[in-house]
């Protein structure tokens, strides 16, 4: 299709006149107008191309406009576009079957939601109803969504203006680079973080705690890959105190870490899994909860008091089936793992060695963060102005970045190629050099 720069101007003007944006003061916004995209590349209305190293909101796992997913949505649209939740639908059943086949044998069914926040909302509800307990523990360095319970389960600043849901308690998870526990090694960080969590459980009263809700690999908070043994240790504490374990795989699931589910790289099985984003790369909005057999049976005779008009929407369900099949057939999960091990891991380490602004590189698969510091000794985070300059330099050179706090997250689609990674690494290198020269 041809691109008309006038449409770009119109899109920008309409946005600024009429669209209210998330998490922002509105007046100073200057949104980037995207005209189209394919794979890991997108372009603006002047025809300038950008490598999408944001995957939008870290959700475009299969890449933009995958032909098999687009075709499945079109085919489903020709059959039926909406089926109310009480009825059965083939695409919905197949989507649940595909997800359960990857989740593992202890899981029994899938409850579909509209996205990630309401997946957490419903997982929390299931945990409370199953245990008869109220409290939910989650980490300060987390994001779980923007609905009543999900935003209060969230640990970061977005919780504070929204604290009206009940029974949420926060604790510190492991993060060696900025350790809360005076730790020097991953082993110390792991042992002390688990000790801290056990003390929080005891101090809150273990019999009042329904669930621990954790991102298997916390994403927005900075790609905080847990140290070996931490998730297994949390599982042990849950079992010791009769607490359910919910893994939020909304951002880290479906290939991001090089696994179908991130927890599968850590040899731990939760009771509930929440998902969204990468399950169908957001071609049509959907999320959900994968429910263990045991918890699913709780609701064999007890009514589950929750539902959504668009639960298991056929267009979204069809896109899940096509996306998961394409990921399997085309080795997309394996590609994400290989890119992390052979290209992004070593390439970003080299970048950090060349640029003192980069205090730490951490991640796996296509899920990485550069923790930027003004002083490597004190690890003081860089200012928002430095991040702003870097974003500008990256965009100028044709790379759409993902920035959060003092970090640049390196989060391309799982289909990214070694050649595209090499181009991106060269752009990051030039952009850091330009900012350091100021
Ligand atoms: N959980 C995690 C780990 C997330 O990263 C997000 C979104 O970024 C959510 C939940 C919320 O998902 P949604 O925006 O689809 O409601």
UniProtKB/TrEMBL annotation:
PROSITE patterns: AA_TRANSFER_CLASS_3 (PS00600). GO terms for cellular component: cytosol. Pfam families: Aminotran_3. The keyword 4Fe-4S does not apply. InterPro entries: Aminotrans_3, Aminotrans_3_PPA_site, PyrdxlP-dep_Trfase, PyrdxlP-dep_Trfase_major, PyrdxlP-dep_Trfase_small. Keywords: Pyridoxal phosphate. The keyword Disulfide bond does not apply. Belongs to the class-III pyridoxal-phosphate-dependent aminotransferase family. This is Aspartate aminotransferase family protein. It comes from Marisediminicola antarctica.
